[in-house]
Design brief:
Radius of gyration: 24 Å
Helix content: 25-40%
Number of strands: 30
Structural class: alpha/beta
Distance between the termini: 60 Å
Bound molecules: iron/sulfur cluster
Largest sheet: 7 strands, mixed
């Protein structure tokens, strides 16, 4: 019999926010030309197809009976979930049921999840793991520019830059195809990397600044000081396009580079050199990422780097700018359409009466029936199962037991719940604790839109059918909504139908998708939001004419250095910082199942300077116990001579006793509610 070949389908990678273009033929993946990846893929993208046929794939709902997860028919599982949620809300109130979403979910799912929480459940208790990723950059962007679009210009604009300052970003590992956009700045002697570790990205830099973890804000103040003191500030731009410079400068004036050197360890001469390189460049960019954002003062840290960009006149200038390198696949779209605790679709605020009226109109409900803001991600997890907290939790697209800070506490909170439901395609560590697990489709098995790191809306096209027994998240939400008493048509299962409704709900909002259609995306149009109507060409570059504050000006932030939330002492004398490696993605729930990736990095390790290791009695390749004030974990020791002697590094992708997040500090940024993942006090012991 002649075999019919699977059609080739153009789509995008399931993982990070670069959303590299790929072509799928069945489960076979090939790279394709797309502006963000220009024909490149990283190892994660190349191997992404193997997960579709993974033997670990869930293909039937699981229900816990006598302590064990056992297969159950869909109707039984959904009936049980609906009945339990109803009973818990009846006994304890609407907010007794919570939802936790993810930055990898499509726009349609993020939107449907927010609507499901507010309309089908009537709960205010919804937030998502993007709170752990981009929230500080988002808050700082809104404060400075009046609008948060991670990169307010296309990635390809970086290609012609003479200088790029990367702070807390390691794209050579996290999104390798991105690095080709830095070639020109590297050749021009203008690629500068700020990172406490000498990462593969730092290796490629003209200048690598290696500050003590938690001191980035002081470093930004020192460079700003040098910009002003050495006559590099763009006074015309500051006067014409910004406000608040004087208050910001009053603080930076007290942070001369030699003082900053004592706090950060970065030589004063290097701070001045950065100021000079950026000022001399015709086209220059400042880009931040998690390293400088995931702090208890992350919003102010990013604000300090934006101040520097404003003093140099970069934002809103063609060929220059400030941007945030968003991490998760739909980190941008996932923070725009309603799965955040304080938000309605279109990046609207849930406490804004006009926003409530508009969105309630689209949903066909009374605006007064919509709940108000709920708890932020860590506060939500921390409250689970407590006297005043939710009694039930539904998790979509997240593995909080591995990825949340102080994860020992999070696991304890989950175990105190009356009812835990997890929708996932594999039995993640969080799913393994659930009362009901619902097996859902993967990216290549469904249509859906994603919004990449430059605010471009993309269509991820279905390439193959899902295995029997698997349903999409939209089908799950529909099935539950109907059982919870919602009209049959209120929660559509077709992604394009959901997107059409999302467009209407976002219309007139900050993130306006009204003019984006599946047909335009299928035709290959490059649509960066806002796209207010179907004739609008999209907005690849925002801020060229004005910033989004009512007066059209960007705002300097008056921010000062205070240091990390916890200090070192004799018991905890070292700074631990966490991050990602090339082969793994986020909690590793997916990439640990890909043999090639897992074989390359099968276990957690701790990078430590050989002298520091010696003092703790640790040998290269041996095991160490890493202890913080919140917990301890074990890791294999890697001697790395380029590490600072006061710092250790741990990747956070691993489960059980290998969880780096057993150590991390959930001290929260007062504005963004971002936990301080990037610095905590630890000690090393021989294991
Ligand atoms: S993980 Fe990111 S960089 Fe790697 S192929 Fe996928 S989208 Fe591209």
């Amino acid at each position: 019999m002649t075999q019919v070949a699977a059609p080739a389908v153009d789509t995008h990678c399931p993982y990070c926010a670069l959303q590299c273009g790929m072509r799928m033929t069945g489960v076979r993946v090939e790279p394709r030309e797309f502006p963000t990846n220009r024909g490149g893929l990283c190892q994660k993208g190349w191997t992404s197809g193997t997960l579709l046929t993974s033997p670990n794939r869930l293909t039937t709902p699981l229900v816990r009976v006598d302590g064990e997860l056992r297969p159950a028919p869909w109707d039984v599982a959904l009936d049980l979930v609906a009945a339990k949620l109803t009973a818990i809300q009846k006994a304890h109130g609407k907010d007794a049921v919570a939802i936790f979403g993810g930055g990898g979910l499509t726009n349609e799912k993020s939107y449907a999840l927010g609507k499901f929480a507010r309309v089908a459940l009537g709960t205010s208790q919804i937030d998502y793991n993007g709170r752990f990723c981009m929230s500080s950059a988002a808050a700082a962007g809104i404060r400075a520019f009046g609008l948060d679009r991670g990169m307010p210009f296309p990635v390809s604009d970086l290609t012609s830059a003479d200088a790029v300052l990367l702070i807390g970003a390691n794209p050579a590992e996290t999104m390798p195809p991105f690095v080709q956009h830095l070639t020109n700045s590297g050749r021009s002697g203008g690629l500068i990397v700020v990172d406490p570790r000498r990462t593969p990205t730092a290796e490629q830099a003209t200048l690598h600044l290696q500050p003590r973890p938690g001191t980035d804000l002081a470093l930004a103040l020192g460079i700003l000081h040098a910009v002003v003191a050495d006559g590099h500030a763009r006074t015309d731009y500051i006067n014409a396009r910004t406000t608040g410079f004087d208050a910001a400068w009053r603080i930076a004036a007290a942070w001369w580079p030699e003082r900053v050197e004592r706090v950060t360890g970065v030589a004063a001469a290097d701070q001045r050199k950065v100021a000079a390189i950026l000022a001399a460049a015709d086209k220059a960019y400042i880009l931040t990422a998690r390293g400088t954002e995931q702090h208890a003062r992350g919003t102010d840290m990013v604000g300090a780097w934006i101040n520097l960009a404003l003093a140099l006149g970069l934002p809103g200038k063609p060929g220059s700018g400030y941007g945030c390198l968003t991490g998760q696949g739909n980190g941008q779209g996932g923070r725009e359409h309603g799965q955040k605790a304080d938000q309605l679709p279109g990046y609207r605020k849930i406490d804004d009466p006009a926003a409530r009226a508009h969105v309630a109109g689209v949903w066909g409900v009374d605006p007064d029936s919509l709940p108000g803001p709920g708890r932020s991600a860590y506060e939500l997890l921390d409250a689970l199962g407590t006297e005043s907290g939710p009694r039930a939790l539904m998790v979509f697209g997240s593995n909080v037991i591995v990825s949340a800070p102080r994860s020992g506490r999070v696991a304890e909170r989950l175990s105190d719940l009356d009812f835990l439901v997890v929708a996932d395609f594999v039995l993640s560590e969080t799913a393994a604790q659930a009362d009901v697990v619902l097996p859902v489709t993967q990216w290549a098995e469904e249509d859906g839109t994603m919004t990449n790191l430059e605010g471009r809306v993309l269509l991820r096209t279905k390439a193959l059918d899902a295995p029997d027994g698997v349903r999409s998240d939209l089908e799950v939400l529909h099935g539950l909504a109907v059982r919870l008493g919602q009209p049959d048509g209120r929660f559509p299962v077709d992604p394009e139908t959901v997107f059409t409704e999302l467009r209407e709900a976002s219309k007139g909002g900050v993130a306006d998708y009204a003019g984006v259609t599946y047909d335009r995306l299928r035709a290959g149009e490059a649509l960066h939001w806002p796209v207010p109507d179907v004739d609008h060409p999209g907005t690849p570059r925002v801020f060229l004419d004005r910033f989004a504050h009512p007066d059209g000006r960007a705002r300097f932030a008056a921010v000062d250095h205070t240091g990390p939330a916890e200090s070192l002492d004799d018991d905890f004398p070292l700074l631990a910082t966490t991050g990602r490696v090339l082969q793994h993605y986020q909690s590793g729930a997916q990439t640990r199942l890909v043999e090639e990736l897992n074989n390359a990095v099968p276990e957690v390790y701790v990078e430590v300077h050989p002298d520091t290791a010696d003092r703790a009695g640790l040998t290269d390749g041996g095991m160490a116990r890493v202890v913080s004030r919140r917990g301890e974990m074990t890791a294999r020791v890697r001697h790395v001579a380029s590490m600072r002697t006061d710092t250790v590094f741990l990747p956070f992708h691993f489960p059980g006793e290998q969880r780096a997040n057993l150590l991390t500090n959930p001290a929260l940024d007062p504005t963004s509610r971002m936990p301080e993942f990037k610095v905590c006090a630890v000690r090393l012991e021989a294991s």
